[in-house]
Design brief:
Strand content: 15-25%
Largest sheet: 7 strands, mixed
CATH topology of one domain: Immunoglobulin-like
Radius of gyration: 28 Å
CATH superfamily of one domain: tricorn interacting facor f3 domain
Keywords: Aminopeptidase, Hydrolase, Metal-binding, Metalloprotease, Protease, Zinc
EC number: 3.4.11.2
Distance between the termini: 24 Å
GO molecular function: alanyl aminopeptidase activity; metallopeptidase activity; zinc ion binding
Pfam family, one: Peptidase_M1
CATH class of one domain: Mainly Beta
Cofactor: Zn(2+)
CATH architecture of one domain: Sandwich
Length: 881
Amino acid sequence: MRTDTPQTIRRADYQPLAWTVTDVDLHFALDPAATLVRSRLTLKRNPRAPAGPLVLLGDELELVSLQIDGRTPAAARITDTRIEVDLDGDTATADIVTRIAPAKNTALSGLYTSRGGFFTQCEAEGFRRITWFPDRPDAMARYTVTLEADKASYPVLLSNGNLVGHGELADGRHFARWQDPFPKPSYLFALVAADLAVNERRITTMSGREVLLQIWTETAALERTGHAMESLVRAIRWDEERFGLELDLERFMIVAVSDFNMGAMENKGLNIFNSKLLLATPDTATDVDYESIEAVVAHEYFHNWTGNRVTCRDWFQLTLKEGLTVFRDQEFTADMLAAEGGDSARAVKRIDDVRVLRAAQFPEDAGPMAHPIRPDSYQEINNFYTATVYEKGAEVIRMLQTLLGRDGFRKGMDLYFARHDGQAVTCDDFVAAMADANGRDLTQFLRWYSRPGTPRLSASGRYDAAAQTYTLTLAQRSAGAADEALLIPVAVGLLGADGRDLPLTLAGATAPGTRLLELDAAEQTWTFTGVAERPVLSLLRGFSAPVIADLDEDDATLAFRMAHDGDPFNRWDAAQRFMERTVLGLAADAAAGRPLATPEAFVAAFGALLADDALDPAFHAQALALPGESYLLERMTPADPAALRTALMHLLRDLGKRFAADWLDRHLDCRVAGDYRYHPRDVGLRALGNLCLRYLCAAGELAGFAAAERQFAQAGNMSERLGALGALVHSAAPQRDSALAAFHAHYATDTLVLDKWFALQAGAWRWDPAAAPTLARVRQLLAHPAFAATNPNKVYALLGGYFRANPGEFHSPDGHAFWAEQIVALNAINPQVAARMARALERWRSFTPALQASMRRALETVAASEGLSPDVAEIVGKALA
């Protein structure tokens, strides 16, 4: 593990490589303790770069030999992480032999072993842990890879591209040779050597080529790959139809691995997946798992063009591939859901995406790790795989589609690929293609790429009854200079007294219900004519821009929009705003020691929403669910987790009791007959039924406990089983411990499902003040035989479930001291995982003074520990700065 002082890398300092690599020939003699890697690099002087030496990067490598054009270079400058060689001429060949120890690689970056097999993870800088190389995204080359291993132990040998040779060797060994015809950066290199089974299918692409699709996993898990295969086929078809993009290799492979830092990786033609985002059956995976698998399979496949064929010039451009591909997978999922469930299913998907943005990215924008979607500097690139780069990056791409229209966006994509196929490019190149394809100046829009923080949008309206006009004034405020306003697309509607959309006439043109306004100044005004009655404003429909809307709406207006807003997203958002106002008011009372009483106006509006039988079940479940606890903490000044938890428990109890009969009736109405199917209607019914149980159990209703216990015992799928168990665990139900024991007994040997069991307990609320803190249970579970600190999934489930998903229990001096203890331990095992867990305290300055003191002590403890990795050092250092 590197323990050097983190160095700041700046985008402004980018220089092209003096020497490029055109071809790479790799030979691996695979051995867990000592793998020998032979690398031949065909080098070419870069005419577009200043003269300089050949620079090769390495990390924890044993250099066996280095030759340039068949000779050992006399003046090579060699350190533990860098080799520099001065070269003459315009071409050269480098032969390098390196020895590595995959079995000791607990960081899971580079080449490592997992459950008896070899796997790789090279993004962002893992390839330099395999062999010496100019390991940066703009070093694009064609790869030929030969894998050699013991055949009995590793019968399957995979790498990128097409299989061009295989055969037997002496001493029970065998080999396979792979060739990738497309140039790629080293971060997209992959190899797998293991004992695996395969689910395969042949399909015909839009140009009539037959291609082979393969999903590889352990034999026992093969039956769980069916949904992933169907998702892959749908993704291939969708990309052909929506963007005209076709699979370009003879085969496309996906491999499941249990030990993996990320969710999945888009290596060219050989995607490597965390098992939890690939394997599913109704008995082991929830509806959310099914949707996530479909989305991630699509995401990694879509990278074949947006990331692989056209890649990033440097890591500052990460959102070029990730923000764009997240947008593409969001659109894919929305289209798949809408094909089965109509526009309501599409709206629910949009709500899901915005929930994630508000819960994860908005807090990031307000903390010490705040950065633009294209950062200007970093210390450790692994720390910049963030919600800002991904989710906010996707929202920026969505705004482009909103501004240009779907057809205009497609024209921009077509031009982008025509110009840059096979290149490493920048975000500016992408926006330039969009601008040129549509004849539009997007210079102002580019400010979204360099502006940190979440912009705020305010609105004020004035109605003139005599003139029948409505004048709307919008103003924006963000971290930029006052004269550098962003271009913000704002979709608006006006509601009449009957709740229906009023026609919008602006400058003589009439829109039926929603009008897109382009706010490109600090403040702008629009006047709508022919407005026959005083309207209610529906602002930012469909969440047309990633901003915080500061709206001066009273309770009556929110209740009206909850009941009538014609835009599904804004109807949900009105409910969330009313809930947020109510919860934060209760939290303020709790912090001040005042008695808690739910406002009757909110109860009435909530009851009307609950009673609305016309709503689609999935939307109903979204609209009735309280805002997330982490999001609400960000809305408190100062953040007080104990007061907020008290308020949430009061509101859940109160709403559960007041509407107990309605919840029970609604729960019965949500039963889904027949075999499990992943379908928007069924998914919505299960989600709403589980929410009913959550309210009933929170209220302590005996009928609710009985209903949850019955559903848990009779469940025919994981969504129903886990939903019932969650309702019991997140309450004072006497059945909670026996249900947890029964769940464990049923899935004792299923490591993926036990992650759900760990996470549920780590996130449990304490409804009985006399009960032991959740921390005591978490400490016990650390010693459970199924928990392993070397497995990222286990860490994310148990420690992530406690640190990130349970603020009401975690935020205490004991919890913070435990955090410091675990971060130091994880840092020695896997710095990337440790850094992700370390971010739980980055917003410490926003909390109450007493909690700030406790968090600071914990951060200082970690900062002072020996052997701190650059990954963790950057997170903790920026938090304390």
